[in-house]
Structure formats: C-alpha cells, structure tokens
Design goal:
This protein is α/β, with parallel strands linked by helices and 243 residues long. It is built from twelve helices and five strands.
Length: 243
Amino acid sequence: MNTPTTPVPPPVRLIVVDDDPLVRAGLALMLGGADGIDIVGEGADGSEVAALVDRLRPDVVLMDIRMPGMDGLAATELLRRRPDAPEVVVLTTFHADEQVLRAIRAGAAGFVLKDTPPAQIVDAVRRVAAGEPVLSPAVTRRLMARAAGGAADDRSERRARARQRFAGLAEREQDVASAVGRGSSNAEIAAALHLSVATVKTHVSRILARLGLNNRVQIALLVHDAGLLDEDGEQDGGGPAPR
C-alpha cells in the first residue's frame, strides 16, 4: 500500500534589483541557496524591471529603493499597476519613513533593511509570496504617525477621499477594516466581533477587492487617513468605527 505524500509547492520565483553589483551578487548567492526560492533574474535599475517581469514571470521582486536611473519607488508604482503583478519587497539601507510609506501606498508588500539577518530576508520573501505583508508593528505605528502628518489642507483632502472610499464598504466590512487599522490580528478581530477566523479572512479579502488594495497595511493606512481611529479612540481597545 502506497503512503500518500504531501505535494511540494513550487519554488518562489524571485528577481533581485539593486544597482550595486556586489550587493546584488550577495543577495542572489544568499537567497539562491535557500530552500524553496529560485533566483530567476537580476536587474541593476528600476527601468529594467518591467521587461524582466514580462520575460521571467517572478512571484516576488526584491527592489532597492535608491538607484541612479529609475528608483525602486517609481518602479514599484509602475509595476503594481499591471495586472497579475508580482509582489514587491522594498530593500533599503535606512529607515526612511516617507519613502517606505510611499512604497506601501504604491502596493509594496513590505520592506527589509539590507543589514537584516539573511534568515529573516529569506523568511520575508517566503511570507510575501504566500500573501502575507512584511512590516513589523513598530514600523507600522511609525508609518501611521507619519501618514497622519503633513499640511492641514493635505490632511483634510486625504481624509475626505479616504472617508468616501470607506463609506463604500458594507457595515461589517467597515468594522473589520477599522480593527485592521488598530493592528488587530484575524483571531483578535474574530473574538471582538464574534465571527469565525475564516469569516474575518473573507471580509478582509472583500475589503481588498472593493478598495483595490494589495494588503492589510494599505487597509490600515486608509483607516488612518480617514481619521476614524481619532474618533473611536484607541484607548477603549476596539469597537466598530463610527458611522
């Protein structure tokens, strides 16, 4: 009698884009030796990414922010507008809130620092390929604070746009989106709203589809842009956003 075997998932197809050939070679060597990751291509500038993606069909692009021609932010914005675009992980040497915030708004699934331990970079690529954004809670909180800043006119216009988009969600979807904005996990949302975790996941998927977003971080940014957490108060530990 044959023993059933669990099918092995195909390797994550990865492209590395960095203008420094030494960094690029080091990343390719490190990531190419990891189980379940296949380096299918390399690029030295953001302007090369579109052609590489067309030819190689990667699952994930590991993208440096600073490059002399087209930088990684512009390349991410162009790439994420395409149908069936690969996930993007932004690669940087520094904590640059404004640039990371722009990358997340553009649809990047997260970011890693170049001095991140190799095992964590490998884990980040795998998680992003599986549909899980990579951004630590501490970084998320700092980005939310940055998103709340800016000139008063800009904040007012951003809030009006965000509230209009938020209003297009169903009532329960608004509750779930607000909880995502507070940083709650699916399990925490399920407990607070008396739903199953599977139902919460379904709501999150519908929210992403309705709003044309890529990941939970973008949902959280929208909630913060709308100013909803300012109104319902984070000190009470939860509850639906005001309607």
